[in-house]
Amino acid sequence: MTHSSDLSSAIGRREFLVTACVSEFNRGSTGGTAVIVTGATSGLGQAVALRLAAAEANVALLGRTQRDLDNVSNEIEAKGRALPVRVDLAFAARLAEIVDRAVRELGKLSVLVNAAGTDVPGSAGSLSLEQW
Questions:
Q1: Which of 49, 55, 96, 127 is deepest in the core (most CB within 10 A)?
Q2: What domain range is 86 assigned to?
Q3: 131, part of any domain
Q4: Is residue 90 part of a domain?
């Protein structure tokens, strides 16, 4: 397989995952539903955040880079509601504060999409909270 076919295959898998996630979300009433998406500034997290916003969800965008958060937030704000939150998920102490803020500003949370990546080797189930 060539590099371009590997890339096409990866993009196809990502598109399938995003479509499956949003299809499952669309089974219920989507208008005004509050969602948190980690890793929302690139890759799968960004794709899911944009699709959920297009389905009329209110989306809390969690990411590490303010410029990237602003870009995704601006795209969502053109059609929906976004709450960009700059955070490094390695520091778990802020997570309760972020969830409380999302509830205050977006309403009751119905969905959490964990799409933030890690560079620690091993399966997700074998990682400690600090490694995750």
A1: 49
A2: 3-116
A3: no
A4: yes
